[in-house]
Amino acid sequence: MVDAQAKNSATVMRLLSDGLNCRSVPHSYIQPLEKRPTNLPSSLISSPHCNQQNYTSPIVDLEHGRFDRAKTIQQIFKAIEEFGFFQLINHGISKEMMGEAMSVGREFFEMPMEDREKLYCDGFEKPVKVASSVVYDREDVHYWRDSLRHVCYPVEESTHFWPLKPPKYREVVAAYSEKVRALALKLLELIADGLGLKSNYFDGELTQMQTILVNHYPQCPDPSLTLGLPVHKDPTLITLLLQDLFGLQVLKDGEWMGVQPLPGAFVVILGFPMQIICNDKLKAVEHRVLTNSSTARTTITTQVFPTKDCTLEPIEELIDDQNPPKYRTLTFQEYFNAHMAARLDPEETIKPFKLH
Ligand code: OGA
Ligand code: NI
């Protein structure tokens, strides 16, 4: 009995979604002044639901497969150059499938604590992992987020790691992650074309890995003191994010810009490894996540990224006298270690690899 209680209280401290029922933000989650979000949109206090009037995100429309290739490539590059991201619509993945994925992700964090606890772990290498914050043991201030992360490629070799509950989780996420992978690879093909590379340039070890990350940001008593995720660039080649409530901000021209959810859209972001191999021709956008005080927010991120031993270096075709390489050669593992050691801070992460 005593043991069970001790075990439970340890778990309560590890995951926010396991009963942290507080009226004020615990001290270890309060961000230092300089990191706190200012000018919070009032929607975070009232309701973070979609506000179409304020809608300014760049959109790329795949027109259900009937898109004009050259025009679409141009749209993608313009969006990435100006905003660092875009919202992808009419991409061929049904709203039903997206909604189901969101439902099972949300349900996972609504289940009783015992069902999640089994998957809790601190290591980064596990094929499935439930955790809280970012690099929990190595940070002074924690972030207001729990997460479920697992491998999902190849799907047949991954599903046995996944949660058994909610009962539909494996079936729904298997179908979803295969569709999203195909979509991510299609986007990478268009990007390769736009860079003047052969269309299948990103096939192989650069995109061999894929994980699903379910982020869960519980309702927070005071969003002005906390962050769901710190300022970061993704450790991926490409990320496709599914969201239905507001919370994501990207840094545009030195200002934080909200990314309002657009029903049925994926938010597409390029990661730091992509920026490195593109020699800054395409950049990974800095982004962060705000919390809100009215409801929990769940997002589903699909991350496509290189194998550990994959070499990252500026692509030869993108280098010339005017564009000398900006980064030294490194492995993805080296990059990822730096990303973690820097607690996701983009400048710190990239320092050891920068040539100028
Ligand atoms: C991420 C991320 C944003 C969000 O998972 O890398 O930036 O709104 N997520 O959950
Ligand atoms: Ni991110």
From TrEMBL:
Task: Give all residue intervals belonging to the Fe2OG dioxygenase domain.
Answer: 205-306
Q: List the Pfam families.
A: 2OG-FeII_Oxy, DIOX_N
| MF-aspect GO terms | metal ion binding; oxidoreductase activity
Please give the family membership noted in the entry. Belongs to the iron/ascorbate-dependent oxidoreductase family.
Q: Which UniProt keywords apply?
A: Iron, Metal-binding, Oxidoreductase
Name used for this protein in its record:
Fe2OG dioxygenase domain-containing protein
InterPro entries, A to Z: DIOX_N (IPR026992), IPNS-like_FE2OG_OXY (IPR044861), IPNS-like_sf (IPR027443), Oxoglu/Fe-dep_dioxygenase_dom (IPR005123), Plant_2OG-oxidoreductases (IPR050295)
Q: What top-level branch of life does the organism fall under?
A: Eukaryota
Cite the PANTHER family for this sequence: OXOGLUTARATE/IRON-DEPENDENT DIOXYGENASE (PTHR47991)
